[in-house]
Every structure is written in C-alpha cells, then in structure tokens.
Write a structure and sequence with these properties.
Structural class: alpha/beta
Number of strands: 32
Strand order of the largest sheet: 1-2-3-6-7-9-8
Low-confidence stretches: 595-612
Shape: elongated
C-alpha cells in the first residue's frame, strides 16, 4: 500500500506497468488495482466512519419493476433508446411523480448496475432542490473536481450549471455516487439569464460515424454543416438552424464581421478566458459544444461545461509567445474544419481578444482567490469522496494534477499580457511617426501628454493563429522631438511600459540625390526640364500619387496655371530654392484629397519667391 500512496510509484504503475499488463491480460489492471485499494483503504475507512452522510447527501428514486424492465431494454438498443420512463422522486419524505431517461453518449453511461440519467419533474410541482430538470451522472463519467470551474463560469455570467456529488438510491438500494446538477433548460435560462425566446442548437452525436475509427468521436468534418444539427420538433428550432447556417458559412468563408454580429463579444471573451486557464479543447469539440440561440438578442451563446481536468503544458516548451495557439496545440489546420473553428476564428477578432485578455488579467491578478474557489469545491466534496466508488487515492491524484495544471497557466498568461516592445521612427521633415507595437495586449500611446492612439493592436492573427504584425503611421507635429515624451500604457493591465522602447529619427531628405529626385518626378508623370541645377516644371495638371522630395542642390520653378492634385497621405517636399509664378487669373494650385481633417503647410526651406 505504501507504493500505491507514493506519487512516483503510482504514476510509474499507471503509465508503464498497467499498459503492459493490459496488452497481456486484455484488462484495465490500473482500474482493478484502484478498486482493490478502495476495499483495503483502512485509513479511508476510518475517515468514512468519522464523516457519516446525512439525508441531504442522498437522492431517492422509486422505480417499479415494469419501468426498470423498460430501461434495461432501452440500454440494449443501438443507439441507446432515450425514451422517458415513469418514476417517483422522494423529497422531504414525500414521493412525487416524475420521468427519467438515459443521459450521455458513451456506452459506459448505460451500465445497468450504474447508469447516468436525466430526471424531469412535472410542471407546477414542488421542484426537487428547486430544479425541474436535473441530471444524475455516474461518478466514473463526471469527476467532482470540475464543479469549481463550472461555478467560476457561472459567476462570470456564462450559461453554466454546477452541482455536487450525492449517493443515488433506487428503491432503497444504493447505486453509488453521482454528480447531481441542474439541466440547462427553460426554467434555468429564464431564472438565471432572462432568456425566454430561444432554441437549443446541438451537433449530431452519432458516434457510429467514420471519424470514431480514429478516436475523434466528438468531432466531424461536417461540424460546420447545418444538416449536421440534431433535429428538434419545437417551433423555433428551424429558425435557429437558419442562423447557424449563416454563422457556419461565414466561418468557412472567414467572414469574421458576420460571425461577430451573431455572438456577444464580451461573453465570448469570458469563455475564452477560462479556456486559457484550463488549456483543454475537449469541452469545445464537436457534440460537446452546445449553443443557445437567443432570438431577442439575435446571438448565439455557447454553453460552458467543463468535462476534462485542466491540461498541463511545460511553459518552457510552449511559452507566452504561443499563448493563443497553446489551447489548440498543433492541430489548428485540422480543428479549423470542425466546430472548434468557432473559437479559433473569434480569437482573431481584436475586441473579443481584448475582452478575453481583460478577464484573463483579472484571473491573473486574483490567482490566489481563483485557486481558493476551486479548492473550496474540493473541500466540499471530500466527505462524499470517502463514500465514493472512486478510490480516495484517485481523487487525490486528480485533484493534485488539476491544480498543478491550472497553476502552470498563470505565469504564462502573466508574461503574455505584459510583453511589450516598441519599435519606430520619426520623420521630422514629414512630421510622421512610424510605429510597430510588438505587444499582445492593446496599447494606448501618448506623446507630450496628448493621446496619439488608443486600444492600438500591434499583433493580429491569421486563420491558423500565426502572427500578423501591424505597422502604423501617425501625423505628429513637434518642434523638438523627444523620445522621452512618449508614454505607452498597456490597455489591459493599465501598466506603463518603461523598457524596450526603441524609436529613432529618420531624415529622408538627406538621402535624396539628383537621380532619385528626377525619378520621383517621372514616376508621378510631372513634366520638367533641368537647366543649371534648376528644375523647371512644365505648365499642366498633375495627379501626385507618391511622395516627391527634391534635393537641396536643386531650385524649383513652378509656372502659372499649374495644378497639383495630391492623393491622401502624399507629400511634396522641396528642399532648395522655390519660385512659384502664380497669377491672379492663372494661379498655381495644390489640391489635397480630404477624407479626414488635415493641416496644410508650405515650408520654404531656403529662399522662395512667389509673385501673386
């Protein structure tokens, strides 16, 4: 027994010895060992006696023999028949009529010695524990350590229910421990979220499909096909399927604006924040993901259901640089063909990712509180686990690994949120600031206490979540440029960036030569002659599509009646002497494309004459 309670020995047996024995015997020797260990757990037995259960720890059902026989027949059918049978639920010593049907997809849910079920109370009855519908999921399929995550999600305002472990008794016979949780149906949606006009949209969960051969039983390449939605005879369902078709078509076309219109951006940000901590994709794959379409809001709301413990990943091999990819690992091209594409593509949307980062930062800043809420759920279930069919050791190991995995996500998230390098150049001659914000979080930029840009996103993502670096250009008028007058504020953490700011000054005018001055004129179709270092523009009308910079070695003459039409953002910089021969009846005209407010300045670098 010492080896069984030694962590290193436990993991060695589970990962090395047990698989080898399974190859020989064809049986799960690790599970068998845990069952025997549970029987001979003397310390656990003593703790069990010291922590007896009370009436609130039980769920009592009454099912007559005829209905039990129906259930046994339903379990034999392929797929399992999920028709309702008649039962009674005992509450406060009083039996109430109710209905029960099988719950779940995996065959392990339907072992008649212990089966998962959904229970529905009649309308206007005394609901059980306040729930009209609830689920009883066998402990082998629903580890209690996940209730804490579902509670965190519910506290954030996500559509998520959390329950507790109870012992199920059928006709006074103990069936073992079960996860008791409210079903997400009409009463819950109205009470907790004010959703009254809605439809459920669920993907097909037919596990006989070909993908199951590869072990990917939940997902299918038909996930984004509207015909892959489970049928439902309720009136609003066809309209919800039509909206799903619109969303899935947009996902496949990478039309993110349309997808964004069909979701609540802040809600999705919260959802992605929890996924970033758990690092588990299982809960969002294929038929695991359930949607509520709210007709009043015109939005899809994915239901949050934690089903797998958090996944540990070595932060040194998959660090903050890959934070947005780590959840999906290396399977993004494959997952983009499945329903996981919904989350992958929405993570690319800047304001959704910013919402995600804001809530993620709250988790990081309150890590101890976050972990304490998870720990409290473990404490609440510790008594029940002494009476569980699951070994005390297994519960301890799963709890330890779950906490370690979540704890490992926080430092990676913190590094991701705080990373920022700034690169840029300032061109004084054109009063242009060029910036590359090499930061994952949105940034606010100030110069000399004046806001240059807010919520600027420096790093975006393509459809496979590879980096797209955004380089920005701003007008910045200043007589004495000073890098020290810049302030960069992380829009998520609100911290001021004080290191890794690299901004230089650039002087394009000094690089202009006789050759490239003429090339700039020619590229814009400007006709001219060159006489003794004087560029004499030919009278005409010119559309200037690219910058023109004339070297200081040249003087420039512009004759009467000449017109320059400058495209947006284009500059003319004449660094030598300038003579403009405009007349009252034949002026020299500069026309600037005005799609936004601009300032127009004439700068005479040396001697300039401009007879009017």
């Amino acid at each position: 027994m010492y080896s069984y309670h030694n962590n290193e020995a436990y993991f060695y047996f589970k990962k090395v010895v047990s698989p080898s024995l399974a190859d020989v015997t064809g049986r799960n020797t690790h599970l068998m060992t845990e069952r025997w260990a549970q029987k001979f757990d003397v310390i656990g037995g003593i703790k069990k006696m010291r922590n007896p259960l009370d009436s609130s720890d039980y769920v009592d059902l009454i099912i007559d023999e005829g209905e039990l026989s129906k259930l046994a027949e339903y379990a034999k059918q392929k797929p399992v028949n999920k028709s309702w049978i008649k039962i009674q639920v005992v509450s406060n010593g009083e039996a109430q009529n109710a209905k029960l049907k099988f719950h779940g997809t995996m065959p392990t849910h339907f072992d008649m010695n212990k089966f998962s079920a959904t229970v529905k109370m009649p309308k206007l009855s005394n609901y059980y524990n306040g729930y009209r519908r609830f689920k009883l999921i066998k402990s082998e399929e629903a580890t209690p350590i996940l209730a804490g995550l579902n509670e965190v999600a519910a506290d954030l305002g996500l559509i998520s229910t959390y329950g507790k472990m109870k012992i199920l008794r059928v006709n006074d016979k103990e069936m073992g421990d079960y996860y008791f949780v409210e079903d997400i149906k009409k009463e819950y949606l109205e009470r907790e979220h004010g959703i009254t006009n809605y439809a459920h949209v669920n993907l097909s969960n037919d596990w006989t499909r070909k993908e199951a051969i590869r072990g990917t039983v939940h997902s299918s390449f038909n996930d984004l096909y509207a015909g892959h939605i489970e049928s439902d005879d309720r009136e609003l369902h066809p309209r919800a399927v039509a909206q799903f078709k619109k969303m899935s078509n947009a996902l496949e076309a990478r039309d993110l604006e349309t997808v964004k219109e069909l979701v609540d951006t802040e809600y999705i940000g919260k959802y992605l924040a929890i996924l970033a901590i758990t690092n588990v994709t299982h809960d969002i794959l294929g038929d695991n993901i359930k949607f509520i379409y709210d007709f009043s809001r015109g939005k899809f709301y994915p239901v949050y259901r934690a089903e797998f413990p958090a996944r540990y990943e070595d932060p040194y091999t998959k660090g903050y640089q890959y934070f947005n990819q780590r959840l999906f690992d290396r399977s993004i091209p494959y997952l983009n063909k499945t329903m996981a594409s919904f989350f992958i593509q929405l993570l690319r949307v800047d304001d959704i990712r910013t919402y995600r980062d804001i809530y993620l930062n709250k988790f990081v800043q309150n890590q101890s509180q976050f972990m304490a809420s998870i720990e409290s759920r473990f404490d609440q279930e510790s008594k029940m686990m002494l009476h569980s069919d699951i070994s005390r050791r297994r519960f301890e190991i799963e709890t330890m690994l779950h906490k370690q995995a979540m704890a490992s996500s926080f430092p990676v998230a913190r590094d991701y949120l705080n990373y920022c390098h700034v690169y840029g150049s300032y061109d004084k001659a054109q009063s242009k600031l060029l910036l590359q914000l090499d930061a994952f979080a949105a940034m606010d930029v100030y110069y000399d206490r004046n806001l240059v840009v807010s919520n600027a996103v420096g790093i975006g993502y393509d459809e496979n979540l590879n980096y797209i670096h955004h380089r920005m250009e701003f007008d910045l008028e200043t007589d004495a440029f000073d890098v020290g007058k810049f302030v960069f504020i992380n829009g998520v953490t609100k911290d001021t960036v004080k290191k890794s700011i690299h901004i230089n000054q650039i002087d394009l005018a000094s690089t202009v030569t006789e050759y490239n001055s003429e090339e700039m004129l020619k590229s814009n179709g400007v006709k001219y002659s060159l006489e003794d270092d004087e560029i004499r523009i030919k009278k005409g009308s010119y559309v200037i599509k690219e910058d023109i910079i004339v070297s200081p070695q040249f003087s420039t003459y512009i004759p009467e009646g000449t017109t320059f039409r400058l495209n947006k953002g284009v500059n003319i910089q004449l660094n030598g002497n300038l003579e403009i021969d405009g007349r009252k009846n034949a002026p020299v005209t500069f026309e600037i494309e005005l799609k936004e407010k601009v300032s127009v300045q004439f700068r005479f670098m040396e001697k300039a004459t401009h007879p009017m």
